[in-house]
Known about the structure:
Structural class: alpha/beta
Order of helices and strands: HHHHHHEHEHHEHEHEHHEHHEHEHH
Distance between the termini: 76 Å
Strand content: 5-15%
Number of helices: 18
Shape: globular
Amino acid sequence: MAARVFPPKKLLKSFGNCYFFSRPFNSSPSSPSSSSISINHSTEKLGSIIEKQPQPTNTDTTSLNLHDVEKLFSSVPTTKLLRASANLHFAAMESMVDFGMWVMKSKLMDIEVFRDMVLGVVKHTFYEHFCGGEDALATGDTVRRLHRGGDGLRVMLDYAVECVSDNQSCDRNLEAFLHTVEIAKSLPPSSVSFVIVKISAICPMNLLERVSDLLRWQHKNPSFNLPWKLDTLPILSSISPTYHTLQRPEPLTLEEEHDLQLGHQRLLKICQKCLEANVPLTIDAEHTPVQPAIDYLTYSSAIMYNRDDNIIMYGTIQAYLKDAKERLLLVTKAVEKMGVPMGFKLVRGAYMSYERILASSLGFESPIHNSIQDTHACYNDCASFMLDKIANGPGALVLATHNVESGEKAVAKAHDLGVKKVNQKLEFAQLYGMSEALSFGLRNAGFQVSKYMPFGSMEIVIPYLLRRAEENRGPLSALTLDRQLIRKELKRRLKAIVF
């Protein structure tokens, strides 16, 4: 087999999504039972990269209004606002977050007593702020509260396991995902908008890397034959990064082909379960070494399950990648030709540091846009393009963003096109525990809004929490506006009590 060019293991351990710990938390995770599984992009992952939030500018009742904090937070108890304010304040302290991330990635976590102490602190702070819970009962209550308790928000359910290395773990995770769909079905109608799955939880990571290598090589050499390849949609564009695969990879072995078939069968079982429960399935994006294989499995399944206006399978486009818009154009053109409706979740992306370090270690330019402004422009262009598409034809769109300006632009575009033409095909989404003001503002403007809610044991959700810590550290994070508006509302409530 040809040598694959990857950065040193130390680099992967430090920065790769699946390599945070010397002793991986979920290298062989156990599947939650009915009593222990709980509910809920970027992903993933509805990711976002560090961005300075513009102040809201619109006050028109048909626009996105974030000025009236009393109306925005009317359904949120004061105790929850106080706790959120404290957590967001700590997230803004770069030195504290940097130290916490260093501890979580250090060998100190191999010491059981120290590990239990650290995880206990994390559980009662960031875990409870960003995650739905460890079991179905607790997380089900959270879903009901968000939907019926006055918030009027829906939930994207994400069993947060990712990056496994063996079929046994994949099979356990499959059962957990199927149970998640059952939970979604049992909750109040329309309270669950999507079930979220990461392909790296149901197909071994090393196989996803191998398949991605072969797909990249075929993209560079169209005559390269892949006998196992099913009908799919365009996966790579003319500017997609291919530096991961510098030499011709060996074909899949019979065992690898069998494992790939098993991975695809697991995904199809989840699709079928979602079809029966009438709950759409969204596949999270991950990092570029495995994204071609993820898109391949996503699109080939979408061709099988998406029919007319019943879109079961959604893919994810990461707008911080330079090739995002070109790939989106290629896929939408292909589905129009095939007559297959397609749903997309549009995110900015959650693996920025990893992608840049990986590309640099191999001597190549980063696949990430050179500036945050370029990422914003790409996101807004893709959103506008897809809004036009769904207003005048089949398809559906999830706009996962924590950026106020992107929300304002999308709301204005929706009104230009006619809200009734897009509203049933459009969902806004933010991560649970983030951008609450934006979520409530979009809800008040009459749009469907979901919170991406990961769940699972502490060990399972640690990689997710580390990504949130990295992207939200410092005064210019996506949480800045929330901190300001929550403090403003707390001051208003205090004055109301005093006077």
